[in-house]
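re: that chain from earlier
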Amino acid sequence: MQQFQHPQNTHRSQPSLQLPSVPPPGGQISPPENFRHRGGALRQLAGWWLGIASLTGHIAENTLAQRELLRRSRLVAWLIVGLFMVVLVLIPLAITDQRAQMTLLLFTAGLLVAVWLNRTGRVTGAGILLVALVSGALLEANLASPIGLTLGELPNFDAYVVSVVLAATVLPRWTTFVVALINTILIGGNYLLQPHNANLQHDALLYPSVQAQTVSLLARPIALQFILAVVAFLWARSMDRALHRADRAEELTQLQQRELARNQALEDGVRMLLTIHVALANGNFAVRVPEMSDPMLWRVGMSLNMLIRRLQAFAQQPLTPDQAAYVAYNEQMVVKMTQEAEQLVAALQRLLAGQAPSWPEPGGTPLDAITMLMQELVRTYGLYGLPRGQERRDTPRDNTNWLR
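^ sequence. v structure.
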């Protein structure tokens, strides 16, 4: 007899489903470890190639011209990589063709020379060589045909626009029109001077005349050259303007940061000088101004340090006998003047009270002259303030209120 199993036991016997962990809100999902390793290896490989084929790491990036030169040098390096890949693709086609093998060999040698020029800072020369290699390779591909110019080789004329794009990328933008004109001359000369294959001669029967065929077949590649030259020129000009704007914005940001740092250093320096002056005013001659980043403030700090050293040396220097006698005499005179001033104030108070004043004795101080003048004033006007022999009519003789 089959036993009945409880649903809970059945549920416990089943394996539990493991759900993938969900990152918290705002968190980032880190890429797998193999992806990170692969990306690091590719970056290392790219850095190695730019280090040996461009000016990366060998030129400063302080000015716009230096940064633009470095940008063009890196572009040339990556374009060389692309052209090397084209050579690898064409190698199977040249296995049985000695002329094609020689062409690929010369093309590879030209790419190596371009690497050397780009690495040594001759970026414009490397760009001119790349343009010449592309246009020359296309021309040689047509001229190497043993059966003459065929209809199948006419699309090669359209490929000349690659050199126009290269010129707009790594050369001054006005060179795009020069390259387009040179390509036009090469296309026209190739078509007119190379013998035509029978299929191309048979195609002329489809046109009213041979001249109409020539114009029809050459109009497209030549027009494509100049149309793409105009587009590439406008693209290069807009890119240059964008780089100039970005460089001005970066320079403005750096200037603002330098100005803020300079203002902060100036405030700190002024605060430090103020602290030194306060300590010096309190008699602390051991303080010194530390070295400052601002040149002008540091010059002031050096002058202040020299002044502090001189004051400290003067304060520690013992007095000569003459200087000690002079200091003692001044201290004695100060004491005498203080005592005489107190006695003179007491005499004036007694005079105001209508009493006989007790004048201080002469002590050889500047207050002696004031005491003599007060004594002469009292002798002239009497104790009560009127000249002798005269009396006030409106008040008794002993009224002394006017002195108070």
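The chain is about 70% helix and 0% strand.
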